[in-house]
Structure formats: C-alpha cells, structure tokens
Amino acid sequence: MQCANDPRRPERIVRYVSPQAVLNAQNDEKKDAPNDDLTPDYMNVLGMIFSMCALMMRIKWCGWVAVYCSCISFANTKYNDDTKQIMSSFMLSISAVVMSYLQNPMPMTLPFTG
After folding, report:
1. C-alpha span between 24 and 28 (Å, rounded)
2. pTM to 2 decimal places
C-alpha cells in the first residue's frame, strides 16, 4: 500500500526551542539563569568538606559520605561543566576512604551504635 503523495507537510514543522533560551536571546544575557540547578556544586563542596574531615580526623563514615556526595555531583553535572573540579573531588573522596582504612583496617562503627 504505497501512496503517491507524501502526506507530511514540511512547512508545518516547528523546531523546539526552550523558553529560557528565548528569554536569554531577547535580553542578550550570557549569565547563568537564576533557576539553574546548583545541586552538583553543593554536593561537590560537601564532598570536599567530608573528605577533609575523613583525612584529618580519621572518621570513616565521613569518607563514605564524601564518596556519596561526589557520586551525586558527578551524576548531576551538565556536559559543559568543569570536569577537572568534579574528578578532583571524586579522587579526594576515594583517597579519604582508602587512607582511613589503611590507617585503621577495623570495620567501621557508626557513631550512634554505642
């Protein structure tokens, strides 16, 4: 069942443009939009803080929280974000876990479990 005429109408095709891109183009602003998701940045900072706590105070759960925060930061980044910052935070958190277990290989005890 072949049709001789193509039912599609190329003049009716409308390409999608996000409303935020339209507003930025109208205002000619190159700044970050105020509704940008800052979760990766916050998780990156938290990961670095917990990594330093794990390295300096030898607290194992801080190292694991740092790994968790780094994974969230890595998963939520956009393609054009700075990968050096994210990977350095990830490596710092991994090294915090490794160093805390090298210094004391005993299993981790949680603070609230007596």
Report:
1. 6
2. 0.66
Mean pLDDT of 84-101: 92
Of the chain, the end-to-end C-alpha distance in Å amounts to: 76
Question: Residue 101: CA atoms inside 13 Å, Cβ hemisphere, count?
Answer: 10
Give me the pLDDT at residue 33, please. Answer: 52
Dihedral class, residue 58 (left if φ above 0, else alpha if ψ from -120 to 50, else beta): left
Residue 111 gets which letter from DSSP?
T
Mean pLDDT of 33-50: 83
What type of residue sits at position 100? S
**DSSP per-residue string spanning 29-97:** --SPPTT---HHHHHHHHHHHHHHHHHHH--HHHHHHHHHHHHHHHHH--TTS-HHHHHHHHHHHHHHH
Rounded average pLDDT over 31-41: 70
